[in-house]
Amino acid sequence: MIKNITCVTCPMGCSVNVEISETGEIISITGNTCKRGDLYARNEVTHPKRSLATTVRVEGGVYNVVPCKSSEDLPKEKIFDCMQAINSARVNAPVKLGDILVADVCGTGVNIIATNHCPAK
Amino acid sequence: MLNYDLVVVGGGPAGMAAAIKARECGIDSILILERAEALGGILEQCIHTGFGLQYFGEQLSGPEYADRFIELVNEKKIEYKLDTMVLDVTEDKTVYAVNKKDGLLEIKAKAVILAMGCRERPRGALNIAGTRASGIMTAGTAQKYVNIDGYMPGKKVVILGSGDIGLIMARRMTLEGAKVECVCELMPYSSGLTRNIVQCLNDFDIPLYLSTTVIDIQGKDRVTGVTIAGVDENRCPIPGTERTIECDTLLLSVGLIPENELTKNAGIGLDRVTNGAIVDEYRETDHEGIFACGNVLHVHDLVDFVTQESQIAGEGAARYILGKKGSPEYITTKGVGAVRYIVPQKVNIKNEGDVNLFFRVGSTFKNATVKVTYNGETLITRKRPRLAPGEMENVTIKNEMLKGFAGGGVIEITVEA
Ligand SMILES: Cc1cc2nc3c(=O)[nH]c(=O)nc-3n(C[C@H](O)[C@H](O)[C@H](O)COP(=O)(O)OP(=O)(O)OC[C@H]3O[C@@H](n4cnc5c(N)ncnc54)[C@H](O)[C@@H]3O)c2cc1C
Ligand code: SF4
What we know:
The complex is a heterodimer.
Chain A: E1 2-6, E2 15-20, E3 26-30, H1 35-46, E4 49-50, E5 53-59, E6 65-70, E7 74-75, H2 79-88, E8 90-92, E9 100-102, E10 112-114
Parallel strand pairs in A: 5-8
Antiparallel strand pairs in A: 1-2, 2-3, 4-7, 5-6, 6-10, 9-10
Chain B: E1 2-9, H1 13-24, E2 30-33, E3 49-51, E4 60-61, H2 62-75, E5 79-81, E6 85-89, E7 94-99, E8 103-114, E9 118-120, E10 129-130, E11 136-138, H3 139-149, E12 156-160, H4 164-175, E13 179-184, H5 194-201, E14 208-209, E15 212-218, E16 225-230, E17 243-246, E18 249-252, E19 256-258, H6 261-265, E20 290-292, H7 303-321, E21 330-335, E22 339-343, E23 346-348, E24 355-361, E25 365-374, E26 377-387, E27 393-397, H8 399-403, E28 410-416
Parallel strand pairs in B: 1-2, 1-8, 2-5, 8-20, 10-15, 11-18, 12-13, 12-18, 13-14, 21-28
Antiparallel strand pairs in B: 3-4, 6-7, 7-8, 9-19, 15-16, 16-17, 21-23, 22-24, 24-27, 25-26, 25-28
Helix pairs in contact in B: 1-2, 1-7, 3-4, 4-5
The complex binds flavin-adenine dinucleotide (FAD) and iron/sulfur cluster.
Flavin-adenine dinucleotide is lined by residues 9-15, 33-36, 41-43, 46, 48, 50-51, 85-86, 115-117, 140, 143, 164-165, 168, 259, 262, 294-296, 300, 302-304, 306 of chain B.
C-alpha cells in the first residue's frame, strides 16, 4: 500500500509517498526534499505529532494573553486535552519570551513556552 | 523640523530589516516610524509557527521572528517612534507624521523606505447580499481578537476565502472550541499554502468547498446563517446549488491589498497587478531616493522573503545616501501568459551582482517549465514540479547575463505546462 502524505514541516509542503508492506512495515519513503520530510512521514504513519501554538491568560499584564507554543511536537490525539490544560492555566505578568508557562503538559514531557514578552501593567 | 538620512515608514519585519541593513551599510542617522504601540507589524498576532525556516532554519512563531529583529534594532541603537502615524511623504522626501507626544512632526530625509505592509480586503469590496449584522469580520481581525485581546468572536463559523489567514484561523478557532462549518473558495483552487490546508483543515475534518461562494447573509443584530452556492466557470452562482448553513460568524479571507495610500499621494507609479510601486532591483521607486519593500510592494506569503527583500532595499537606500548609485541603464521585466507579475519591474544592467526576479502564476501547474527570455531569445529554462498562485517563485539572472544586455531590453518570463 502507498500512503500519500503532505509534509507540513515547512512551507514547501512536499508530497511524500510512503510504501507500507502488508505487515505494516515501511518499505520506502519518496518525494521528500529533505531529511525532515522522511522523519515526518515516518511519524505520520506510526504516531502522528503536531506542534501547538495558542495563548495563556496573563494576570496583571498589558495584554490579557501571551502567545505560547509547545517546545516539541505533541501526539496529535492529545492536542485537545493539552488545549484544555493550557486554557485553565494562569500566569502572572511580567512574562518573558522563552518562559515555561505550563511544564510537562498532560504528562507528555513537553513544555509550553512563551513566544512573546508581556510586561506588567 | 527634524533631519535624518533615512526615514523608514512602518516597523514590521520589512521596515526593521531594511533599517538594520542600512545601518550595516554605514548609515548612522535612521528613524523608524510605526503607528502601532510596538514594533513587529502583523507578526505580533501571527502566533502560529512556520516563520523563519528559510532565514533562521528554525520553526519560529510570528512574535519570536519579530523579536529577533526588535533585539537587533535595539542593539544597533536605531531610533524609532511608536504610536506615530505617517500622514504624508512628499516628492522631496519630507515626511509628515503625528503622535500624542510630539504632535505634528516634519522630518526631512535623504532617503525614505516605505514598509507599510498590507491590509485585508474588507467586505465592502465583495458585494454579498443580505444584512449588515454583527459577526462579519476579516480573518485578520478575528486573529487579533483571539491572539492579542484574548477573546473569541464566535462559536459557529463559516469562512469565505481560503487564503492563509482564513485557514490559520479555522484551526485556531477550532482549537479554542468553536465549530468551523466550512471554508468556501470562489476559485477552483485554494490560494493558501498546501501545508495550511493539510494541517489547518484536514486535521480537523473541516470541509473546503472549491468553486463555492456566499450569496446571502441572514440575521438582524447578529449573523444567524449564510447561504452558499456553487459557481460556474464565470464565477456566477449556479441555480439549485444553494444551501443554508447556520452560523454566528462569517470570516472573510479574500485577499490582501498593499497599503499604498502614502505611495499614491506621493505620486509614485504603481503596478496595476501587484498594487505596489514599480521598482528596480534595489526596490527604488520611480521617485529617486524613495524605496519600497515587504507587503506594501507585493504580497509575500513568507516573511523570510520579506526580510530578504527589505535587506536589498536597505542596501539600496544606503548606496543612494552615500552617493554610490551611479547612473543606471534599465531593462524592463514582463510576465507573459500565466505569469501575473514580476518584481522588480526594471533592472539596472550596470548592477554588479546577480539579480533575483520574483514572480507569481495565475493558475496551478504540474511539471511545468519556466522560461526566461531576453528580447525574445531564451536565456534560462527551469523545470518546476509544481507551481501555484499561492506560492511565490523566483529565478536568478546571473551577472554575466546582465553584462550582455543593452539598455531598453525586455526580459520576459513564461510558464509552459
Ligand atoms: C495571518 C497571517 C499569517 C501569516 N502566516 C505566515 C506564515 O505562516 N509564515 C510566514 O513566513 N509568513 C506568514 N505571513 C506573512 C508575514 O506575516 C508578512 O509577510 C509580514 O508580516 C510582512 O511584513 P511587512 O513589514 O511588509 O508588513 P507588516 O507586518 O504588516 O508591517 C507593516 C507595519 O507598518 C505600519 N504602518 C502602516 N501604515 C503606517 C503609517 N501610515 N504610519 C506608520 N506606520 C504604518 C503597520 O502598523 C505595521 O506595523 C502571514 C501573514 C498574515 C497576515
Ligand atoms: S520534506 Fe523537507 S522541504 Fe519538503 S516540506 Fe518537508 S521539511 Fe519542507
